[in-house]
Amino acid sequence: MLLRFSHIMVYSHRHQETVQWYCEKLGYEIDYNAPGEYASLHHKNLGRLAVHVANEGNRVTSPLPYLLCDDIHKTVEELRAKGIEVTNPEREGESPWFADFKDNVGNRWGFEEK
Fold first, then answer.
1. By C-alpha distance, which of 38, 99, 91 is closest to 68?
2. How many domains does one find in the chain?
3. 108-113 and 64-69: which strand pairing?
4. Is CB count within 10 Å lower at the N or C end of the chain?
5. Alpha carbons 81 and 77: distance in angstroms, whole number
6. Which of 53, 58, 57 is nearest to 18 (CA)?
7. Domain span holding position 61
8. Cα–Cα distance for residue pair 15/21, rounded to 1 Å
9. CA distance 78 to 2
10. Which whole number is the average pLDDT over 48-64?
């Protein structure tokens, strides 16, 4: 079951510069940073932000909103039962399980397991 909003993921060809911009200009703080790959940021009022490197392997290059779910596999089944196209769940290293789906006009939404 989808529970609540989780975070926004943005993609950048200038990863470290983008992380620095969000910290200096908007007041985000770094939770985790692998320069040139991925960063997880937080803001006490604005919530979580993930910054990924944009490359040819990324499925999207525009901001991607993420929702939180309690059980990734059950949520995938529930969404597919409603006729929604959903990717297979996956993980990157020790990250939470995640997947994504498209709405009726092709906008992508991600979701991850709590």
1. 99
2. 1
3. parallel
4. N
5. 6
6. 53
7. 2-113
8. 10
9. 10
10. 80
Q: How far is CA 23 from CA 31, 32, 44, 45, 109, in A?
A: 11, 13, 12, 13, 25
Neighbours of 60 (CB within 10 A): 14
Query: Average pLDDT of 32-48?
Result: 92
What is the token pair recorded at 23?
Answer: 């910290």
pLDDT single digits (tens) 91-103: 988 889 999 998 8
CA–CA distance, 4 with 108 (Å, rounded to integer):
16
Q: Is the pLDDT of residue 59 over 70?
A: no
Place of tokens 């975070």: 7
% of the chain surpassing 70 pLDDT: 96
The one-letter amino acid code at 31 reads D
Q: Residue 95: give its domain's CATH number.
A: 3.10.180.10
The per-residue pLDDT for range 2-23, each reduced to its tens digit, is 889 999 998 888 889 999 999 9
